[in-house]
Amino acid sequence: MTKKSLLAVLAILCAMGLMLSLAAPAYGQAKPKDTYILKGAPMGGVKFEHKLHAERAENKCETCHHASKPEKPSEQPQQACTSCHTKTVTPPMKTNTVGAFHKNATATTGNCIDCHKAENAKDKKAPVKCMDCHKKENT
Asked: Model-level pTM?
């Protein structure tokens, strides 16, 4: 193998090593899942979109986690949804409780039950009782 070939191979290997190191998660942590089902809510499991919340918090971990870069984020205590989502719009989430808990509930008719009944009229199976979606797992 010539010196030029050897240098080319070494350059390629160095470039690949650099690309892999840049692609590795920070601090050796695995990337959080985009969506979790949080257990323990008063009305049952709640869909929590981590990616959306991280974007709204401008990727500042300390907005939601007490430690700025927790070693084991999955072991951090969960905050109540209502610590950020209140009856009125509050930063950083900019969404009140109804908007956060029932995404499109007020977008059309202003009431999730009305919308679900309208969907049922189209022969779709939309739940019309709170407990159809929210299972009582904590009572």
From this structure: 0.43
